[in-house]
Amino acid sequence: MTKSAKPSPNRRRFLKGSLTVAAAAAMGAPSLAKAQSGPITMRWQSTWPAKDIFHEFANDFAKKVNDMTGGDLKIEVLPAGAVVPAFGLLEAVSKGTLDGGHGVMVYHYGKQTALALWGSGPGYAMDANMLLAWHKYGGGKELLNKLYASIGANVVSFPYGPMPTQPLGWFKKPVTKVNDLKGLKYRTVGISIDVFTGMGAAVNALPGGEIVSAMDRGLLDAAEFNNASSDRVLGFPDVSKVCMLQSYHQNAEQFEITFNKTRFDSLPAQMKVIIESAVEAASSDMSWKAVDRYSQDYIEMQTKDKVRFFKTPDAILKRQLEIYDEVVAKKSAENPLFKEILQSQIAFARRATQWEQDTVVNRKMAFDHYFGPKGVAKKA
Asked: At what angle do helices 314-334 and 336-359 cross, to 10 degrees?
């Protein structure tokens, strides 16, 4: 560099900052994990079998955190049952038996019914992404903190990962009317237990890894879990060849990442910010991966596994909504916090769904134009 080519002020500041960082590193300045001699390690568990794509989502999140912290925080995720049963995750994380976990809030329904409002139901015409918008910007986060405090749960919760609408489920034959559900031994979870009970089914709540074996042994006549990829790898096509698509029982669900609060609060402030950013990054990535993988498995179940898919009749969908209204009215009368959360969701949904219905074009016309019987894309 010649004498006349002096670095600009911005360049000088950048060089000064770089030298400061380099000097600090050379002097052995502490990293994010400065409170201990090595990386902070955490042992987690998911509520999913190791082969399920949901466990893959849990590992995806852990990898993002591990990479974004430069290895200063290392999360290991074990599958369901490795330490505690799937439905025991919240208690294990709260007590510190586990440092964190990956699951869904509806699995904690037995501890506080209002937890099911994060995903188990029609979402008042919101999809799962809109419900997450309510959580972050419409008061849901504060209400969830209040809810967990009410049951003494020592956890920090991060809802994330909007799920597509879940199927009505797997049956021995197509369901054509509401009365077809009466007397069926059926698997579901959360408020959906009350909804399907109200429709006449005999409901049994089971974690994902136990459903197919229960159907195979005749303990269940029908069941729902979640999506084409999970259902396929868990073996549903081996015990049923009929799947009913579309339902309101879990129209707006998402996953939940939980940390033991004592452990989370002890982390460096910068690491907490990284974790929150990783949650949102993983949420987007999960959504995109789901579109890719679910659509592939949906096609392959039809072509390779010979599964027949049917749309759930409108009469059943309408009855779901009617019974859901009855269920939440009863629970609101029993549980003031349930009612407070419900009112918050309705207020947000009223304006959010009105905006969506008025603004977002119905893509069915475009789908028919390109991929229908006379679709132009078929000629390409």
From this structure: 140
- Both tokens of residue 310? 């049917």
pLDDT at 380: 62
Buried residues in 22-57 as b, exposed as e (16+ CB within 10 A): eeeeeeeeeebbeeeeebbebbbbbbbbeebbbbbb
CB distance 352 to 124 below 8 Å: no
**Burial class of residue 222 (count of CB atoms within 10 Å of its CB; 0-12, 13-18, 19+):** buried
- For the chain, the straight-line distance linking the first and the last C-alpha, in angstroms and rounded, comes to 59
SS3 content of the chain, % helix, strand, coil (to 5): 55, 15, 30
Q: Range with the lowest mean pLDDT among 102-106, 196-200, 240-244, 372-376?
A: 372-376
Rounded CA Rg of the chain: 24
Q: Assess contact for 32 and 73: CB atoms under 8 A.
A: yes
Q: How confident is the model at residue 70 (pLDDT cuts 50, 70, 90)?
A: very high
Look-up: residue for tokens 């967990």? 148
Phi, psi at 235, each rounded to 5°: 100, 15
- Residue 216 and residue 345 in contact, taking contact as beta carbons nearer than 8 Å: no
Of 115, 159, 128, 343, which Cα lies nearest the Cα of 253?
Answer: 128
Helix or strand holding residue 306 (H, E) = none
Query: What is 59-99 written as a DSSP string?
Result: HHHHHHHHHHTTTSEEEEEEPTTSSS-GGGHHHHHHHTSSS
Q: Which domains does the chain have, with CATH numbers?
A: 40-162+253-291 (3.40.190.170), 169-251+305-356 (3.40.190.170)
pTM for the complete prediction? 0.88
* Residues with Cβ within 8 Å of residue 287, at least 6 apart in sequence: 129, 161, 162
Return d(Cα 130, Cα 348) in angstroms, integer.
9
pLDDT at position 19 over 90? no
Give the position of tokens 């049917």.
Answer: 310
Kindly report the number of other CB atoms within 10 A of residue 77's CB atom.
Answer: 24
